[in-house]
Specification:
Layout: H1 2-18, E1 43-45, E2 47-49, E3 68-70, E4 73-74, E5 79-80, E6 82-84, E7 89-96, H2 99-109, E8 116-120, E9 128-134, E10 136-139, E11 144-147, E12 149-156, E13 162-169, E14 175-177, E15 182-193, E16 197-198, E17 205-206, H3 214-252
Parallel strand pairs: 9-13, 12-15
Antiparallel strand pairs: 1-6, 2-3, 2-8, 4-5, 7-15, 8-9, 10-11, 11-14, 12-13, 16-17
The structure holds 2-acetamido-2-deoxy-beta-D-glucopyranose (NAG).
Keywords: Membrane, Signal, Transmembrane, Transmembrane helix
Length: about 250
């Protein structure tokens, strides 16, 4: 048994050494370029991991695949929350915190389980990427307090694919929630279109969020150059001036 596993790990190490250190992400047998990309305003639906209400464990199908279901229904639209590709928005989504939802949010707030959903890299591609919604708050005996205002950051690339996203509570106050109550969640959705920066020769790239205000960086850099020139000029002027004065005194003598 031990010998067998040794051989196996040796073989794995060998195949690992021969293969590239990098794996493409998302890992998929499908070729994303076979699917048309997103267009502005197109619906981006979120599906979320189904979990057992008591433990937060995943719910699996017969083949052991994690099961997903659409995002909770918003009472405003009677439809699950969905985003619009490359359209910033402020979405109100009121959810009825019935028994199951209430218990799931106890787990999310207590950080026993992440509130993880997924979206598609390209529409109808079946190539999914994860997105975590991080709600914060306090879980108490008979109720919980939740910060219901989330910033949502979504990142797309120049090929109109969605690369990544996340959401996180960002307010100064929480809202008290008891079982059965309706709770208005607010999603402030902001999209960024970023370009890929290559970090090595194997076409491995990363989408970095740019500096807060790239113009400011240029203005600072420009101001630095101007100050440098002025200081250099002032110092050399004083030196030249002194030289001229010295020379004229010399002449006078
Ligand atoms: C929000 O929290 C602050 C600080 O604890 C408190 O002073 C303020 O009254 C709260 N506001 C509401 C609407 O609860």
């Amino acid at each position: 048994m031990l010998f067998q596993s040794l051989i196996l790990s040796f073989a794995a190490a060998l195949s690992f050494a021969s293969a590239s250190k990098y794996q493409s992400y998302p890992l998929s047998e499908l070729d994303p370029t076979k699917f048309s990309s997103y267009s502005k305003g197109q619906d981006v639906s979120l599906q979320c991991i189904r979990r057992q209400i008591d433990t937060g464990e995943h719910i699996f199908d017969d083949q052991g695949n994690i099961l997903y279901s659409p995002f909770y229904k918003c009472l405003e639209t009677n439809a699950p929350l969905s985003l619009k590709y490359m359209e910033d928005s402020n979405v109100q989504c009121t959810i009825k915190f019935e028994d199951e939802v209430f218990h799931m949010f106890q787990l999310y707030l207590h950080k026993d389980a992440p509130f993880t959903c997924r979206f598609e890299l390209r529409p109808n591609s079946g190539i999914y990427l994860p997105i975590d919604l991080s709600f914060r708050g306090n879980v108490l005996e008979s109720h919980f307090d939740i910060d219901p205002n989330l910033n949502m950051v979504m990142i797309a690339n120049n090929e109109n694919e969605i690369i990544s996203g996340t959401g996180f509570s960002s307010s100064t106050n929480t809202t008290k929630v008891i079982i059965g109550q309706n709770v208005e969640l607010n999603f402030n959705v902001k999209w960024s279109n970023l370009h890929k920066e290559l970090i090595n020769d194997d076409n491995v790239g990363v989408y970095w969020i740019p500096p807060r205000n790239p113009w400011l960086v240029w203005i600072y850099a420009g101001a630095g150059v101007v100050v440098g020139i002025v200081l250099t000029f002032l110092f050399s002027y004083r030196r030249i001036n002194r030289k001229i004065q010295l020379e004229s005194w010399n002449k006078v003598e």
